[in-house]
Amino acid sequence: MRIEVAYALEKEQFLFSQEVAEGCRVDQALADSALLKRFPNLDCSYLGIFGKRVEPDQILQEGDRIEVYRPLKADPRERRREKVSQEREAEQ
After folding, report:
1. What is the distance between the alpha carbons of residues 36 and 34, in angstroms, rounded to a whole number?
2. Range of the domain at 65
């Protein structure tokens, strides 16, 4: 069955298409992917399929797109707190 593997850097995106066996898991597909051949030291801790977080042992379906996510640079909640704090200081 055909799947895709996607990864994005800040200014560049990668999308690889590949054939995998029926019953293949996410981690197995990644191990054989062109993505890991291009980025052999890539951290594959954060994974998803079409925007939904999945575990490496998730069984793939025909047409799935595995997405490898980068860790966030900043916590969105903390950034929001900082913004509110700055706005309050500006009002005073």
Report:
1. 6
2. 2-91
Instruction: Dump pLDDT digits (tens) for 31-65.
Output: 999 999 998 998 888 999 999 999 999 999 999 99
Q: What value does the CA radius of gyration of the chain take, rounded to a whole number of Å?
A: 18
Kindly report the CATH number assigned to the domain that includes residue 38.
3.10.20.30
- Nearest residue to 47 via CA among 24, 28, 71, 66: 66
Within its chain, how far is the Cα of 83 from the centroid? 27
Q: For residue 2, list its beta bridge partners.
A: 19
Give 5's strand partners.
Answer: 16, 66
Q: Rounded to an integer, what distance in angstroms lies between the CA atom of residue 89 and that of residue 45?
A: 39
pTM of the model: 0.76
